[in-house]
Design brief:
Two copies of one chain form a homodimer.
Chain A lengths: L3 E8 L7 H14 L4 E5 L7 H4 L8 E3 L2 E3 L1 E4 L2 E5 L15 H13 L6 E7 L6 H10 L4 E6 L3 H16 L4 E6 L4 E2 L6 E2 L6 H8 L4 E4 L4 H9 L10 H25 L1
Helix pairs in contact in A: 3-4
């Protein structure tokens, strides 16, 4: 872990807000800027990173007494419990203490080599897994909290921020995903999950707001096909996303400076 | 628990698929048919039932050495950890063993009195909470699995079914939520999360398919306002939902008959 310059946790208070999609696209985008990136998926019950990157058939290999992560590209390495399950319908029926041990192994025994960024995709909520990883990783730059705009999701953002504060993990900021939708036929706006709830919560809680990603059926398709949308042609969604990642990079630099001062 | 005729668990492999919304509307709808219904929310990190029913200001009271559930109506009683938290931004930072103890209390110490139905809303995934409740409740009619149509969600349905089979919990069926979307401006179909994925998975895994609920921005609003959509006027969504609940009632009767034969 000491050879990793920046560590982020991607958290969400609620499931299904696109947290793994944000984590994958952030990791791929950073790796496309010639950064050396690791992506660690600690969602033990529902690992979705292998599917999102079309790596379901891959397995991990031993490297001495360490585990070698799966290479997505020269600059991006991935580790997920999905690589250890015999097939995708297998359920991991483990209680908290066993999950803690697995996460410990993921944190200590994966040979990432030197990394500029480690992006950690946590399962939703404030349960055993994020608690374990925060305690085990130490010295993370902070948490990126993903939400959708509706009130029900925003309540869970507040829980998430309370959780980070109690564990003394800095919050880098909030991303509002599935924010607003434009009909592809008539180009009119449709408020499916609403818009602005995440931004409002960030303001209330005095947390940086990182930006909005519109709801876009192409993102769902790109997820199902295992092709991150940052690899696609320029779209309003991609533009919104790159602005967010630029903000995250700057905040990460500032966080490290503050820590080493 | 022995005074409860039917017990259902509402499960999902993945978060954000509308599981709690289905659980709430199922419970309210059954209670509107003059059934005596209990709704137990065991999502400890993100309880959303109090918000969905506009009961956030309510607290539970003691009744001797038991806990009295909150009354939504004469025929519907609710229990959720949300009623025990000082405010909605509080996060429960507990590991598995403490969660097991809380669920045990919820199962044994809440005075539901006689019920026709107990609907149990579980957190997403196959973690400590559903594992505990399945073991503690005993003799449930079965699980209702909620999914969205995209492939990524369907993988998690398979995990969920494997989980139920390993724990010998019957699966009543699969509900496909957020299935298809019609633009309210131009009335054209838009495939946001696709359609048919849950139905296909049910067929593959030889599990009854309970039906599709369309994506409907009115459901999001009704959730945020704390008014279950089964109380609203007749809409295609409501029609789809009542057909699903009719199927569930029939399956529940058959499940009890099979058990007592």
């Amino acid at each position: 872990m000491e050879n990793i310059a920046h560590k982020f946790l991607v958290l969400s208070g609620k499931g299904g807000v696109g947290k793994s999609s944000v984590a994958v696209n952030l990791a791929v985008w950073l790796s496309m800027q010639s950064k050396r990136v690791g992506l660690l998926d600690i969602d033990i019950h529902g690992p979705s990173i292998p599917k999102l990157l079309n790596l379901e058939s891959k397995g991990v290999q031993a490297a001495g007494d360490k585990i070698r992560p799966v290479s997505y590209s020269d600059t991006l390495k991935i580790m997920s419990i999905g690589f250890l399950l015999p097939d995708e319908s297998n359920a991991v029926i483990w209680r908290g203490p066993m999950k803690h041990n697995l996460i410990k192994q993921f944190v200590t025994d994966v040979c990432w080599a030197e990394l500029d960024y480690l992006v950690i995709d946590c399962p939703p909520g404030t349960g055993d897994e994020p608690l374990s990883v925060i305690q085990l990783v130490g010295n993370a730059d902070g948490a990126i909290i993903v939400t959708t705009p509706q009130q029900l999701a925003v309540i869970d953002v507040k829980k998430c921020i309370t959780f980070c504060r109690q564990l003394k993990l800095p919050v880098l900021g909030v991303i509002e995903n599935m924010s607003g939708f434009t009909c592809p036929h008539c180009n009119k706006n449709i408020d499916i999950f609403g818009s602005g709830g995440g931004e409002k919560a960030a303001k209330e809680l005095q947390i940086p707001f990182l930006g909005k990603i519109p709801l876009d059926e192409k993102i769902v398709v790109s997820g199902d096909e295992g092709k991150p949308f940052v690899l696609s042609e320029e779209t309003p969604t991609l533009k919104a996303f790159t602005e967010i990642t630029n903000r995250i990079e700057k905040l990460a630099e500032a966080s490290v400076k503050a820590r080493t001062r």
